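Dear support,

I submitted the protein below through the web form. The confirmation email said the job was done, but the results page showed an empty box. After a refresh the structure appeared. I'm attaching both so you can tell me whether what I see now is the final result or a partial one.
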Amino acid sequence: MTPVDRSEFNRRIFLAGSLAAGAGLALAACSRTATAPGLTSQPTSVNPALADAIKAAEAARPHTGRTVTATLNPRPVTVDLGGKVVKTLGYADTVPGPLIRANVGDELVVTLTNGLTKPTSMHWHGLALQNDMDGAVPATPDIAAGSAFTFKFSVPDAGTYWAHPHVGVELDTGLYLPLIVDDPKAPANYDAEWIVMLDDWTDGVGRSPQQILEDLEKGGMGAMGGSGSQGSMGGQGSMGEQGSMGEMGASGGDTLLGGDPGDVTYPYYVVNGRIPEAPSTFRAKPGERIRIRFINAGSDTAFRVALAGHRMKVTHTDGFPVVPVDVDALLIGMGERYDVIVTAADGVFPLVALAEGKNAVARALLTTGVGSAPAADFRPSELNGTVGTVDMFSPAPEVALKFTKADTEMVADLTSSDTAYQWGINGPFPDNKPFTVFQGQQATMTFANKTRMWHPMHLHGHTFAVYKPDGTLGARKDTVIVIPNQSVKIAILADNPGYWPLHCHNTYHAEAGMSSTFDYLV
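What the results page shows now:
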């Protein structure tokens, strides 16, 4: 299939607004501000067929008739990270922002009023929602400073999701929140729930995210990876063809990522907005089964997470159930989510999130009885045990992707410049060409990492199945880690029409060109 030329991108930006109107959703409150090079003119052509297809896809989703509403006001805020008070951007005076919760088929109505001095957006990460509500260009125009926009869509799938901006480097602030979609018909097989959001933190403490990006661009570290502060390539932890990892050490020099662990060394790594010296505490009773929902909201850091004194039974990847697997720890890249069940022991137990390859930790505490917490830099032995990664998991039978044979095969070469801080998917955005499909097609995409750094690759509006090394289809995901000099193949059903971003979920890589789009042709 021949990709459409990227010169069409300006036309598609206009279509995003037109599609929303075609779906009966007004965008009159929004003004469009370009967030990537070359987004200037907006011809007035319209594609009614695609607008109709988007309306039909929304109508086919479950609808309970129940509405869940929320109001958000992104703005400058002052937050306490646990004795460290910082000025940042947020949806509330706490980080993360307020939890949004709904049932499958509920209509979510969220009004966002932009209290920032620059454009923003709100992407509903992981949801296979209607295209014009995705909250990212080209599907949804950005929201100008002082303007408001109401997102309105049904939530189709149960699971652990989250929301965050999709403009510049705004994600590397306090602008993120958890989104949980429940299935009332699902069995209640746990006693308590703990939502754990992991993050790397610099805003209001060290360099601002914009300063970091400018420094990276000046340093020209694209091909080597790293900002110079990391320096080493780290330990070469082998993942096999698709990412298989066994038992690895958790010392500062080892990394499971097969290369440079990141571009940025952060002043703090936090769990639920708290630094290790002042951790948040989750209280439960001994013997209770706790569902922990892990979300990595970081911008440049993978976390290896373990709960001292406990094994974790992995039950979900990126919202979708898997055949349960017991692990000691989990490797979680930016944008990924994992749900686990633990049976609480008696005492005080640190939940430790090792900033992979960066020789630092974030932590929280599980308290079920008497006891004292170890030092803030404590690293439990579970970090050195069996680490759960995507290739270890198989989908639960009821959510296995109904994929038979590919109608089209795509290759996404992940690239970097030798001379500048520039990344790409078959070349840097916006000069690369989009991937194109027709509605109803079955497609495969192979991410081939040609760089010396790892990349968490995220596709909007879809979940995909990750091929295992033996060629079988594995877990359902929307974000997957691709380590250096390796490839990961995914299977996609083209069942959600529109224009969808495809990008690395490293905030700085995406901003420096590692982006594309996954476009439906009608």
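Response: this is the final, complete result; the empty box was a page-load delay. DSSP finds four helices and 32 strands in the chain.
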